[in-house]
Amino acid sequence: MVALAVTATIFFLIAPDSLLKKLIPEKELSGEFIPNQDIDVKSCKAFYQKDSIYSNFRKNFRFHYQTIGLATSSDSSRVILISEPPPYFNADTIQQICAQFTHLVEAKNHKIGYDGRITDLVIVLANATAQNVNRLVANLSNAIYLSDYKANTLLLPVQKPRSYFVDDNIDYQITLFEFNDWFIEKDELFVQLPDTTHGYTVENLFHDKKTGVFFSKIPGFVAWAITKNKDLSEQLSYIRQFTLDADLILGALSDSATLVIIGREREAALTELPPLNVESILLLASITEKELSQSLDVNDFLAGKMKSGNDWCPTYLSKELENTEFGHLLTITDVLLKDWSENGTIQEKYYRYPSPPSFPFSSPLFKMLGLSELVYNWNTQNAMYAIDMEGFTIYTLNRTGSLPVSYFNSPERSVSVGRRYENQAYNYFATLGNTDLARVVQYTALYQLFMDNGISYSGNIHSAFPANKPYLLLTPTRNLLNIFKSFKDSEITYIADSVSTKNYHSFQNKMINKQLKANEGRYHFKYSDVQKEEIHRNVLADSKKKLKTDFFEIRRMLNALSSEEFEQLAKYLSYPRGMRAMNQATYQTMLRARKINMLMRTLGKNNLSLINLDLNDVKNYYVNHLANSSARYLKTPSVIITYNDLLTTGGHNISSGITRVNSLTGYKRSNSSGGSYAPKPSTQKSNTASPSKKSTGTSTPAQKKSVTSPANIRPRSQVISNSPRSQRGY
Fold first, then answer.
1. CB atoms < 10 A from the CB of 197, how many?
2. Strand locations in 570-655 (E)
3. What CATH number is given for 41-155 in this structure?
């Protein structure tokens, strides 16, 4: 009996799985086989390969990409990579999941931007079977994504890099009429896999108050049904499923109890359109603010050109977005908006984002318009439309490829430079196939839908807002004002002479000659050399005089302020957003700040070295004080460093407001992509909308009303592919 037992054990180790199932009772195979763990993890092949494997991954995935990567070595050792873990993931969880295996865990920092970073986790397993790894990946998925649905790994070393531009269409323009036609009038059927026998229309989902993820019976759509006015923490397991099975959000429908978000059933590979991050979706559900914003504060008092010639500026994010994936995506796409609008001439020094195949304009927009300054904005104006029907609401995105674009003359005056330029840019960015621009649209759509339907999340989102950031530049601002305040007459004269002379020789001289030549051509006469010299001399003298006068005025103003007024001025200059209340005192502070900013512009921040101030030192002061302010695994860059920048600013204005219309047709503004819905939409809710089905509070069939179809109405198969997907559901 002893010999037989030994033989059986040896056979268990070498027999193929199919034979084992025949020879050994099923219950004896219920336990997982753990191979010998008496191995020094530092002697296995995976240990020696981990650094090159990680380097290879981040070389091919330089920006945000959350995944579980896996590399297998010939000695059965493994490298498991957790890239961009969510803030709620505790590294101690790895110790629990891998407790039966000899392993080690390393944190790897990947730089993003100037001082941002992503912290990835690398696990080395000394010895594990494929079955072991599958179970470990499933457990890690549960901890990372709050679900082990379709637990998958990225094969390492990387076989194919992440795609930043895709050839296939990701810019859908689906109308409210089409959503009504497909999902209400024509009753698109959905099933909840694995059961394919029971079909649900959207109306059934409303009536039965169903929750979960559903697939259209004919391939093409994925629906995520969420109970409204209820905490999302009770529906966590569905989030990852929806983000894996739907690669684009197209719109939604809702009644009084349920929100049904409609996505395109995944066509793109995960490396093309990565699943939305679960933690980012929970963050969006937790936000109660009705406006979110992001900007690059190039016009801040102590931002600007350093002695090196590069420009620096602080990054701004709403406090909810600091040190989050979505917040950093907004910063990245803001950089892209400016750079690509200027034909690639304004570049961020530390991002190195792949260049697009073309640019929106034939020449840089700033130069084309001939403006002194320009504001570039992503916004949500008409990004999503909604119509309130009888008993339900329909939502569709205007475009899924990018948010709308605005170009303004200046930050103070939000006057468009021209709808033609904005439409051209919107069409360019939307049809570019850029996966990050499309990702921002998806997150924005979720934020708007959650806010409009009372979807909330009260769990811990691990907010990592750096409390010291808002007034961090107060000390250097106060110091500079004190320098201005205490200038001697001789010092002011020296600075005015030096700056004016420098400006004259660097650009003013050429501008004067150009103007003189233009005058000669226009008025048909010729300046003598004496006249030219006198004009040049007078312009230089006037420049010196004006700068001296400005300095004297600022010095006089600062010395006349009370200590309290001086401090308020310093606070406003260091952080203008901090001034909330508008009264006579704050208005006066704003006027004083404007005068000082005008002086700084005339002086030129690249000339601050004349008073022994290099903005590089200010930048370092700012960065160093924020070095330890981050989320557990992510730090968004606190500054942006650019070169060849102009007087440009911009950002994102993301509103939770949705444009509501009172007709299923005739609401979209015309644009260069061929849209023909020109009439302006109503922003008021309507209870007398176009034809609708019954209120969803009853279960009896609706009486369908006749409706005149627009000339360009499309069947769903013409818009969304109904070809079979490789793997539906589990």
1. 5
2. 634-635, 639-643, 648-655
3. 3.30.1360
Annotated domain spans of the chain? 1-31, 41-155, 176-286+674-719, 291-386+401-469+648-655, 474-625
The confidence band for 698, taking pLDDT boundaries of 50, 70 and 90, is: very low
Residue type, 93: T
* Residue-wise burial string across 415-439, b where 16 or more C-beta atoms lie within 10 A, e elsewhere: eebeeebbbbbbbbbbbbbbbbbbb
Give the DSSP H or E segment for 365.
helix 365-369
Q: Is the pLDDT of residue 396 over 90?
A: yes
How many C-beta atoms surround the C-beta of residue 445 within 10 A? 26
Cα 425 to the center of its chain, rounded Å? 18
The pLDDT assigned to 429 comes to: 96
Q: What are the tokens at 36?
A: 């010998």
Give the ranges where 611-652 is alpha helix by DSSP (H). 615-625
Which region, left, alpha or beta, applies to residue 163 given φ > 0 means left and ψ of -120 to 50 means alpha? beta
Q: Which two tokens stand for residue 432?
A: 């570019």
In angstroms, the CA 718 to CA 715 distance is 6
Please, what is the end-to-end C-alpha distance for the chain in angstroms? Answer: 45
Compute the average pLDDT of residues 338-360: 89
The region of weakest confidence among 73-77, 168-172, 364-368, 652-656 is 364-368
Half-sphere exposure of 276 (CA within 13 A, CB side): 31
- Could you list the beta-strand ranges (E) of 604-647: 634-635, 639-643
Instruction: State the Cα angle at 21 between 20 and 25, rounded to 5°.
Output: 100
109, β-bridge pairs: 119
pLDDT at 253: 98
Q: What is the pLDDT of residues 144-179, one digit of tens each?
A: 999 999 999 999 999 889 999 999 999 999 999 999
For tokens 């590089």, the residue is 616
Convert the pLDDT of each residue in 1-23 to its tens digit. 333 332 222 222 333 333 333 33
Residue 424 backbone phi and psi in degrees, to 5: -65, -40
Q: Assess contact for 117 and 110: CB atoms under 8 A.
A: yes
- Give tens-digit pLDDT for 256-284: 999 999 999 999 999 999 999 999 999 99
Burial of 410 (0-12, 13-18, 19+ CB in 10 A): middle
Positive or negative, the CA dihedral 282, 288, 291, 297 is negative
Mean pLDDT, range 76-101, rounded to an integer: 95
Report the distance separating Cα 397 and Cα 403, nearest Å: 10
Arithmetic mean of pLDDT, 587-615? 89
